[in-house]
Amino acid sequence: MKLLFYTKLGLLLSVLSILAGAFVRATGSGDGCGATWPTCNGRIIPTLSDTSEIIEFSHRSISGVLLIVTMYIFISSRKLEKESVARTSVNYLTFFVLFEALIGAVIVVFEWVGLNSSLPRIIAVPIHLVNTFGLLASYVILYKILENKLDSIKNLWDRNFIVISIFFLLTGATGSITALADVLYPSASFYEGFLDDFDKTSELLTRLRIFHPIVSTILSIGLYIESKQLQQKFNINTNFLKFLIFAAIFLGVTNVLSNIVLFLSIFHLAMADLLWITYIYVSLDKVKNNLTTN
Predict the structure, then answer these.
(1) pLDDT band at 116, cuts 50/70/90?
(2) Which of 52, 122, 171, 245 fits as disulfide partner to 32, beta carbons 3.0 to 4.6 Å?
(3) How many CB atoms lie within 10 A of CB 37?
(4) Cα–chain center distance at 72
């Protein structure tokens, strides 16, 4: 089925776009294409003579292909029944992708990039990342609906799923703020950075970093408990989900103790995205199992 194939492709492109965006931010290459959008320094195909331009243009290219793929899915979905859960999921997906493009355009045009530490950028960055979680979730839900021919996903939205999802979003938002602080106000060592987190004279962004490990710890505990409940109540294999929980914790702690390494930061984000994708996918098995038993 073509729609299923393009959904897989869109999900892959979404992850690549998110990681490319993180690489742009971590390297301070957000101004590589200047304050022009969708062109790069006024050109559709830039000269690519500068490293920051190459990095930023690569990110825009991936995001552009993602937008095209998503619009193809949207147009193709018009053939589906108007009230079908698949078509509804595509509508949400399209919203998140378009909003993602809008946020990216605003950040570039207003130059909330590079070493800009303005309040609008501090607000825009977590909104940007939280929206990517909605984007990924929509793609996974659509994939699962098409794969298993689901006509309803109402059983997905129980209390546990909503609470875990909220903590995922909070973890993502605080993580994006922490990553921005690490770029704008890097510490000479882990010890110095730890002291800066509690120093009243430190920058606001630096002092906000402490919230990420707190929220992510709560998420990890809740997610592990939820994975055990999914296995017991619905006979769902959650071993891979449990593995990802511990892997994400290990990477996060290692990155902090290493005083933030670019490779580890990107890898940690990739692991967080994979954890979110896996949680959504596994949770949807509740719906499939209920349909099978009823």
Answers:
(1) confident
(2) 52
(3) 15
(4) 22
Residue with tokens 């110095």: 192
CB 56 within 8 A of CB 35: no
Torsion angle defined by CA atoms of residues 29, 32, 33 and 37, in that order, rounded to the nearest 10 degrees: 20
Burial letters 75-91, b for 16+ CB under 10 A, else e: eebeebeeeebbbbbbe
Residue with tokens 């018009």: 78
Q: Specify whether the CB–CB gap between 283 and 161 falls below 8 A.
A: yes
- Tens of pLDDT, residue by residue over 64-110, are 999 999 999 999 999 988 889 999 999 999 999 999 999 989 998 88
Size of the chain in residues? 294
- Which residue has 């004279």 as its token pair? 201
Query: Residue 155 has what DSSP assignment?
Result: G
47 pLDDT higher than 70? yes
pLDDT (tens digit per residue) in 230-270: 999 999 999 999 999 999 999 999 999 898 888 889 999 99
Mutual orientation of helices 285-293 and 211-234 as an angle, nearest 10°?
20
Residues 150, 286: contact at Cβ < 8 Å?
no
Model confidence, pTM: 0.92
The C-alpha atoms of residue 172 and residue 155 are separated, in whole angstroms, by 25
Q: Which of 56, 77, 70, 64 is nearest to 9 (CA)?
A: 70
Peptide bond into 38 cis (omega under 30): yes
